[in-house]
Predict the 3D structure of the following.
Amino acid sequence: MPPKNSLVKNLLPSLDMPKRRRFLTGSASVAATLSVTSLTLPVNAEENPLWMKTPGKPMSGYGTPSTFEASVKRPFASGYPTVSPGTGSSRTPHQALEGTITPSGLHFERHHNGVPDIDPLQHELLIHGLVERPLLFKLDALSRYPLVNRVHFIECSGNSGPNSAPEPPQITAGAIHGLASTSEWTGVPLALLLHEAGIKPGATWILAEGADAASMSRSIPLNKALDDAMIALYQNGERLRPEQGYPMRLLLPGWEGNTNVKWLRRLKLTQAPTFTKDETSKYTDLQKDGLARQFTFGLGVKSVITFPSYGHKLERQGLYEITGIAWTGAGRITRVEISTNNGLSWKDATLQGPVHSKSFTRFRLPWHWHGTTHVLQSRATDDSGAVQPTRTVFTAPYAKGMNFHNNYIQAWAIDANGSLSNVYT
Ligand code: MTE
Ligand code: CO
């Protein structure tokens, strides 16, 4: 289990003085708890540790995390391990992370036929179909356009799928909800390129095709392409990672991950949806009445408590900060409420700014644990007024096992020993 949160959070009341003072000013009962947890100094406290006695390592061309963080990895699931080992997904380990930006090496991956090894000098993006002037771009030509940078999440519509199982799986927050990550993306607004190509009357959809061995393709309404779509070239300041679509991907903020076509090679303006294999065989939401909803692009308002969550242990009673991430395809998160009593009552968490549109928002709430059992839940609201639904409300219209677009409230139970488990409520 990644140690970060359990260690840091449990030592926080006694070792992190500035934070401790901040809490002390706020509440007398906090002070009482803190005095119980203060540490006695070890005898060798003033001795220099080993790593102060020899020179440190030299510089490196590209930095890597501390070896002590080696357990912070993406858990992965391969759909077809022998035929196509690159087909499947790996997930962001949210339970071990803080803040809102996902480190590029921990951004979730979802590949339909592995990661292509694309030579950026040979790769081209074609814009054609119902346009006045078909255009062909190399990476260097695209990189010369005025670029914009925006912080956005990408979420696979299959995210949180493990919670569709009849019994709640006892796996980490990342293993359940880790098909969602946030980066700062830099690229060219797609509207700019479409206007340059000249949109012909009658064009209402765009076929977007990737240069992977799956030729993954989706139909995108022209309106979205003209709104906030981007051809992303950079991720967190550096060129896109191969896993995220190097050298270019379509970014459709707030829309299901699948439409964010990676390794983008072709955009064809059309009169109607193309009905590609990827939007007819999958990515439709089967209802109880046997009909399936198609082109359900926008992602719902959602949140998950990342600490404490499955795999963490509250080692002793006292102050803990309940924290997590919230996001919505509609725009901004406006509120996150937390319940520690299985939904009987709710308290507003603090939203950590800046709150970007269609991005992770970090929420926090200080809380005292007195060694009793609890069920923790978080409930997010967005600026369209949408509130995260309960599991019962969400699943009502769908066929059994439908596991796309799950955004219902996640619950973690704490037992009297401070161990966490995943529960359905
Ligand atoms: N684009 C191509 N060309 N091939 C793919 O397999 N997977 C899609 C989408 N774009 C995919 C693709 C799916 S289902 C998702 S959820 C996102 O990319 C995942 O993006 P990521 O791997 O960068 O997290
Ligand atoms: Co997906």
